[in-house]
Amino acid sequence: MQLLCFLILSLCLAAQPAPARPKKQAERPVRVACVGNSVTFGYGLHDREREAYPVRLQEMLGDAYQVANFGHSGATLLYKGHRPYISLPEFRQALNFRPDWVVIHLGLNDTDPRNWPDWKEEFIPNYRALIDSFLVVNPQARILVCQMTPIFDRHSRFQSGTRDWHAQIQRAIEQVALGANAQLIDLYSPLHSRPDLFPDALHPNAEGAQILARTVYSALTGNYGGLQLPVIYGNGMVLQRDEPVLLRGTADARQHIQVRLRQKGQVVHRAESFSRADGTWEIQLDGWPAGGPYELSIISEPMQPDHYRPYYPARYPLSLSSLTRHAKQTLVLDSIYFGDVWLASGQSNMELRVDECNTRQADMADAARLAGRLHLFNMPARARTDAVSWPDSVLGFTNQLQYMDPQGWHAASPQSVAAFSAVAFNFARVLCDSLADVPIGIICNAVGGSTTESWIDRSTLEAELPNILHNWRTGDYGQAWARGRMTQNIALALQPDSPAYNPLQRHPYEPCYLFEAAIQPLAHFPLKGVIWYQGESNAHNIELHYSLFRLLEKSWKRAFARSWHSEFQKHPPLPFYTVQLSSLPRPSWPAFRDSQRRLADILPDTWLTVTTDLGDPADVHYRSKRPVGERLALQALHHTYGHPLVSEGPVPVEAKNIDTGSGQVITFIRFENADGLSVSRGFEVAGQDGIFHPAQAEIQGNKIYLSSPQVQRPAAVRYGWSGFTDADLHNAQGLPASTFSMQFQ
Description:
Largest sheet: 11 strands, mixed
Radius of gyration: 30 Å
CATH superfamily of the largest domain: SGNH hydrolase
Helix content: 25-40%
CATH class of the largest domain: Alpha Beta
Strand content: 15-25%
Structural class: alpha/beta
Distance between the termini: 73 Å
CATH architecture of the largest domain: 3-Layer(aba) Sandwich
Shape: globular
CATH topology of the largest domain: Rossmann fold
Number of helices: 22
């Protein structure tokens, strides 16, 4: 009955005498109605009459358009919600406006427990009826349906229902747009990585409103700034060999996108596609064998109506003349190679440069030798997290997610390698020498001191560990050192009398930040695998890291799926080669190293590289990084490339007690990778009392027999169990065994 009354009201409004329409559309502005709730209204803005997104949108569109704000705070889409939009005066005003274009942003208030739990089944029918009401007063109206802006973890109802109901409503809005043949605008993605723009976790500030206006402007006009490529694309880049590669980018909407791959001036591959309504495009290149160089041309030019109409609803643009469009554009990338691409990431021991290490002369000589075969993409931090207070400029670009400095692709040379990660370079060096004529691309975006949680995407943490997001700087999830350093760096932003005052100031150690600033710009770029060296800033809480690292792998495997659109989503194996913490006299490190070993055992496509024999008791940044890269490369050559070699040290697989029946117990551990075992120290055993004592070790084949006069029947064994350890179990290849603890059978 309510729906019937509503439709009758709409028809009545439509039957009212309409103002005489001009003979030509150009004689009056295009009327744009912004329909919505408090976000559209501009709630919380200091000067909503100048800062609300519809006002900014009017400025962008210009005098050929008339934009009106019909937002109402607290409005629900649901007719039976606590404040239905259809019962508000703004709804009647919007109908009387007889808009040509209607931008609808509703649903946030439907997440209220008074609304969604009881009436969610009516959301789609109610939304469709709202759309139909605007089509009654103007059958030619162009309808744009907005996915909701984000609600952040600081919201009081986030975990009690809002998080999950918000996601359900987003999916319902997608169904509405599809069923109504309406254009869908994503207002979520541009703002989900900017919690600093939402003072109350719900309403954007003036900068957030500006982003909203720009997003809606692009959707209305099709102007996305012309042909653009992700930052990882450039001259000298390496693309993954032997598999289809999806090139991606943005352009104005409804552009014809063409790709030409040339070698020695001859076109060897052509492909084409078109840009979607949101400006994104993807083109698949066939799998190419290792080699190069190639030239890659990407061309964008407007599609003709007959070309785009099969792909876009007729209502999307009123006419081509209403769109701001770029003419034909061409981007040309030179010296493109097909090979294997690896990502090196983590914190300071991965970040440590070649010119800071004790093998810098040998490394630079190797760089000169590898010119043309090894290609580097360095992405260092623009500001260090040293014990200083950052100036306003650093605080500003950090909030803008501009903390990283992508420096483009460079061929290996003594100059380019000097400032590159020593671990990453030496890993790539061994691959170059072992894979014949396969070009190797290595990307490094490590950040000193960074936390595991800072590298995980926001959606994953919101769903699986939301409490870590809340009050991270003052809470007890993060390591005290990391929280303290962050507070020191952003001190200026925490002073209320400072021009830079911002209680929501961002920092690279904050959960999600480095995913948003350092991983998202690389998303969906095809990788062969990842090398990861991090943990020093999480070793205080082994149990938390055990969960976080699994979430990190899950997060990255989704991020580096082959496409950002669901129809192309694939999740091929993304191997992780991790570095175990080295030796350093810190009490929690033995147990943390053992937890890293256990994680590598249970996680798919994950392998561990041991470095306990390389540590420096006086410096967490030990300078011998060449062996670390070499050991990582051994693991990759064996597990990813299938080379028949021993890639790691002795691995314990069984700890057993054998009772001889005469009161004597024989205790041993069986190992894999055990040819040529050697050891003189490092083992301890404990009885049922849990007190460990040093144990003598005797090697027999692939077993080590243990004995201790203080323990008659061992119940547990551990090896290398001190922060800085001199334990020396190796195999014939000179590879060390991991710190470990085991129970005897």
